[in-house]
User: Fold this.
Amino acid sequence: MLTRSELPRNPVMLTVADGETRHTVTAERLRGNRIRIACTCHAPEGWCRHRLDLLCLRYDATLERDDEAEFGFEDIVMGTPLADLADEVDVALQDYGKAVRAMETRPGSLDSGALRSLAERAADLSEAATQLDGALTRFRKKLAEGQGPQPLSSKPG
Assistant:
């Protein structure tokens, strides 16, 4: 991983397409090897697929492909805890999707084998959802670390 002072480009902006809409994802290495990665979609969940895909080095949705910008992006994010967490979320999303699809098959009968199979698929879905929730929680927290100090909330008193 390059140090912040060794980065040839910092920050780097990439434009991605989401259907007919365009969003700009900006990645910047901060002091202490923290990463700030923002997207103009302003996803209310604290993360978005645009940032996740780019952190997993998937450039399929990138408009106006630019090798120099992509290499610059990789220099900023590769080997960082945020990129590692993005990979963890990506795997958890795949596992969750597979478990959801498995639940779409309903038992044809109420025999014990069919019910046992349904219960196993339900347990798999529960485990996948729990793993995804944990991965997303860690990912959101790491994303927030790159945004700097959060304003103190005022408590009614």
